[in-house]
Design a protein that fits this description.
By secondary structure, the protein is mainly α. Helix content is 87%, strand content 0%. It is rod-shaped, with a radius of gyration of 43 Å. Residues 236-261 have low confidence and may be disordered.
């Protein structure tokens, strides 16, 4: 009878141990499932944040490229407008010179035929000399303005090249920061997986410390990306509108051939 009771007690104890083991295993499975769900949710949030950052970076790069193209188009239009104005001024000045020369030639011929007084002969010559001198100064002024326009164009090209180089540097830094962020996130996911399986408390604390350090690096990386995006936004606003210069010579249409001297 005592052997039978002892066997029953052992069987009951074994069943209790089995139930306890099942309970512990079930709780461990629930804990792991909960940690896995949290890890997946965190990874999904990080993926969405990374995609959003990439989308914003691409949109910012497109905006800067568009603003640069618009600025270049405005600069080209301004240069063309200045060149057209200079060509018109030269053409009109040359037409005036030819007209005045023809008029002076006709006056000289008439003077020779009619033998007019000396002052009537000298006056057209003096006027012709004055017209030639005035034409020379007009030509010299146009040449100087051409030189100034060329210098402005070179400055604009240099400024555009510097802006392009700065933008490329910022985009390269952003790409490096994104690659670094992806590496840190992979390491963080690996640590989460290790934490889910670790049993030793000392090892768990070590992994938690590494995870905290990774979180700090991720935060620093995000701050750097934010600063670089701010720099790229402010870089496109420094050029401003090209100031329009008043022409050195203003051409006014008139019937007087000596106008402008």
């Amino acid at each position: 009878m005592s052997d039978r009771d002892e066997n029953s007690a052992l069987i009951a104890l074994a069943e209790l141990r089995s139930l306890e083991a099942e309970r512990v295993a079930e709780e461990e499975a629930k804990r792991r499932a909960k940690e896995d769900a949290a890890r997946r949710a965190r990874e999904e949030a990080e993926r969405k944040a990374r995609e959003e950052a990439e989308r914003k970076a691409a949109a910012e790069a497109a905006r800067i490229a568009k603003e640069k193209a618009e600025q270049e188009a405005r600069d080209r239009e301004e240069r063309l407008r200045l060149q057209e104005a200079e060509l018109r001024a030269r053409s009109e000045q040359e037409a005036r010179l030819r007209e005045e020369q023809m008029r002076l030639d006709a006056q000289i011929k008439m003077t020779e035929k009619k033998a007019r007084p000396l002052w009537l002969t000298v006056t057209p010559i003096i006027l012709g000399i004055g017209l030639i001198v005035g034409g020379y100064f007009a030509w010299d002024t146009i040449e100087k303005r051409d030189a100034a326009a060329e210098a402005d164009r070179k400055k604009a090209e240099k400024r555009d090249a510097e802006n392009k180089k700065a933008l490329e540097t910022l985009m390269a830094e952003l790409n490096e920061l994104k690659a670094e962020q992806e590496r840190l996130e992979k390491e963080r996911a690996s640590l989460d997986a290790q934490l889910a399986d670790v049993k030793d408390e000392t090892e768990r604390q070590r992994l938690l410390a590494e995870k905290a350090a990774l979180d700090e690096e991720l935060q620093a990386n995000k701050k750097k990306q934010s600063r670089n995006r701010s720099k790229s936004k402010s870089g496109g606003d420094d050029d401003g509108e090209t100031k329009k210069k008043k022409p050195a010579i203003e051409v006014t249409k008139t019937d007087d051939p000596l106008d402008g001297l």
